[in-house]
Design a protein that fits this description.
By secondary structure, this protein is of the alpha/beta class. The chain has eight helices and 14 strands. A seven-stranded parallel beta sheet has the order 1-14-13-12-2-3-4, with helices on both faces. A five-stranded parallel beta sheet has the order 6-5-7-8-11, with helices on one face.
């Protein structure tokens, strides 16, 4: 049974590290949530380690700059693990060949910068679709356009057996009050049409391996039983935590706010109804991270 809690401090003593989602938990795509900042600061003050675990399809340096723009204080986290970095490792190891067709926006092009943890990386060249050996998807060209608009290109790619490397499994995200499509929506369509996808980010294992590497870089050797995952995505954060055998705190006031009837806190009956059809059940739940 999922336990509804009032604040992170209620359970903090049971954990030595948290893997905390960003969008929907620490910020809303525009500005940081003050209560969430204070909760993570308090966790660190008692000796805990905070790894920000995000499905952002970019390297951690880019995410850190974004956090600065959102007025997120540097003292509420220790390190960052991104789906972009885990996917970059695979790309520079040759997972989709050397000639890559890129789907994304200009700010995602930093994905092509070499990653230091890959020795002897392959040389990647961006090409048109008809020359490509694989597809890199960081997000839609237009986050407000119907993903189905990509069907003609996908049909051509599937016909010649191109794999799609998806750097962000999220289907949707809310930027303030505006909902946008993410790379996961395009990958879902590609699979449904018969194409092969390589998925990076929550709920898939590579990004959790990267998060553990970030802990190791900090000199922390922490068992799964002492790591708490925090997130608002039932099919990403919660399912991923379950797959890694870690406890999870589900933030219901994010993507599932309507389904869980969350105002300050989720309605217990609505939450239970929502979880009945969920792919995994969280250990804890609260309306907003605080």
């Amino acid at each position: 049974m999922t336990r509804i809690i009032e604040k992170l401090a209620d359970i903090a003593k049971d954990y030595d590290a948290v893997f905390c989602d960003l969008w929907g938990c620490l910020h809303n795509g525009i500005t940081a949530h003050a209560a969430a900042v204070e909760a993570l600061r308090a966790f660190r003050a008692q000796g805990g380690t905070v790894i920000l675990l995000t499905n952002a399809p970019r390297q951690r340096a880019s995410v850190e700059k974004q956090l600065e723009r959102f007025s997120t204080p540097r003292d509420c986290w220790d390190s960052i693990a991104t789906s972009g970095d885990s996917a970059r490792v695979a790309m520079f190891q040759g997972a989709i060949g050397e000639k890559v067709y890129f789907i994304g926006q200009p700010h995602d092009e930093v994905f092509f910068e070499p990653i230091k943890i890959v020795t002897d990386p392959v040389t990647i060249r961006r090409t048109d679709l008809d020359e490509a050996t694989g597809i890199l998807c960081c997000g839609p060209f237009d986050p407000f356009a119907d993903p189905a608009e990509m069907r003609p290109q996908f049909l051509s790619a599937i016909a010649v057996g191109l794999k799609m490397l998806c750097a962000n499994p999220d289907i949707i995200v809310d930027r303030g009050d505006t909902r946008e499509w993410c790379a996961g929506a395009l990958a879902q369509l590609y699979r449904e049409m018969g194409g092969e996808t390589l998925m990076f980010g929550k709920p898939h294992p590579p990004v959790y391996d990267l998060a553990r590497r970030r802990l190791a870089e900090l000199g922390r050797d922490i068992p799964e039983s002492r790591i708490l995952c925090i997130g608002d995505g039932i099919a990403t954060d919660v399912l991923g935590a379950a797959g890694e055998d870690m406890d999870c705190l589900f933030i219901t006031g994010g993507l599932a706010a309507e389904q869980t009837a969350t105002r300050d806190q989720p309605d217990p009956d609505a939450l239970e109804s929502f979880l009945q059809g969920a792919p995994a059940r969280p250990t804890f739940a609260m309306g907003q991270l605080r």
